């Protein structure tokens, strides 16, 4: 069985994340979408709410499991006996951060490989941070996030 972990903060999940998840489902039998729960990192949505949104937004993908973890991603991957981590790449600006993370992870756990998928051009500029900011200032995010997230953003205002 080909399995992969797609980790992230998902604060909140966007159409960009969903695009990566749906494409991963075409190549992998099991896609674990893993919420990194970092108690020291300030998030807009609680871990519980982010998990709830992940579950409802991915319910149609049979291969997807939603999970969360604390601590190092590579330790989580090992605990699941999965050697491959997936990250989405948008603009050039993502590259440096992703390159550093992938290399750091390889340094501390050479058995774990990171692979990247380019987001499609529709979602090239979509980030959770910008979605939160624009939504809080009254911008229409309906084309960029799934409906349950749109509702949660409206509630959060
Ligand atoms: O959606 P994000 O915030 O870009 O995701 C980043 C994430 C959660 C994948 C990364 O911060 C992570 O792996 N955190 C878990 C802790 C860890 O392993 N840190 C070392 C990374 S080199």
Kindly estimate the percentage of residues that lie in beta strands according to DSSP: 15-25%
Q: Whole-Å distance between the termini?
A: 43 Å
Oligomeric state as shown:
single chain
- Radius of gyration, in angstroms, nearest whole number: 15 Å
Cα shape: globular
Structural class: alpha/beta
Helical segment count: 6
**Pattern of helices and strands:** EHEHEHEHEHH
Ions, cofactors and other ligands present here are: 4'-phosphopantetheine
How does the SSE layout of this entry go?
Elements: E1 3-8, H1 15-27, E2 30-36, H2 47-57, E3 64-69, H3 73-79, E4 84-89, H4 92-108, E5 113-118, H5 128-136, H6 147-156
Bound molecules: 4'-phosphopantetheine.
What's a quick, concise take on this entry?
This protein has six helices and five strands, in the order βαβαβαβαβαα.
Explained architecture:
The chain is α/β, with parallel strands linked by helices and about 160 residues long. It is about 45% helix and about 20% strand. The protein is built from six helices and five strands, in the order βαβαβαβαβαα. The chain is globular, with a radius of gyration of 15 Å. The chain starts with a strand and ends with a helix. 4'-phosphopantetheine binds near residues 7, 8, 36, 73 and 104. 4'-phosphopantetheine binds near residues 7 and 9.
């Amino acid at each position: 069985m080909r399995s992969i972990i797609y980790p992230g903060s998902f604060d909140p999940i966007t159409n960009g994340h969903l695009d990566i998840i749906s494409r991963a489902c075409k190549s992998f039998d099991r896609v674990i979408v893993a919420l990194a729960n970092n108690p020291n990192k300030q998030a807009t949505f609680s871990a519980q709410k982010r998990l709830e949104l992940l579950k409802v937004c991915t319910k149609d993908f049979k291969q997807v499991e939603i999970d969360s973890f604390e601590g190092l991603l590579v330790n989580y991957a090992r605990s699941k006996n999965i050697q491959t981590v997936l990250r989405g790449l948008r603009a050039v600006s993502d590259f440096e951060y992703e390159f550093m993370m992938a290399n750091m992870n390889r340094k501390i756990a050479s058995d774990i490989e990171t692979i990247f998928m380019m987001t499609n051009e529709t979602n090239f500029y979509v980030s959770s941070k910008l979605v939160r900011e624009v939504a809080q200032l009254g911008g229409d995010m309906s084309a960029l996030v799934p409906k349950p997230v749109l509702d949660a953003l409206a509630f959060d205002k």
